Amino acid sequence: MKSFEYVITDPVGIHARPAGIMVKEIKNLIGTTVTIAKGEKSANALRLMAVMQLGIKQGDTVKVTVEGGDEAAAAATLEKFFKEHF
Known about the structure:
This protein is an alpha+beta fold. The chain has helices spanning 16-27, 48-53, 71-85; strands spanning 2-7, 33-38, 41-44, 61-67.
């Protein structure tokens, strides 16, 4: 299991358009399970509505956990994605 924390910098937080792109990116990471957590709440990152229900806003810290497959490469890919989109 690999994980990283990221502080959301996008003024509107995690919203539908980039979250949808994130789901597509995660689907390419075959054999991995990705979870996004904000505080005590967490969601499977492939479930767009579950991620949206976390209510992640600018300044919030999220923890992204990757399990299965090539965890190190998947975590690095997702960390880069978060820096570019959120």
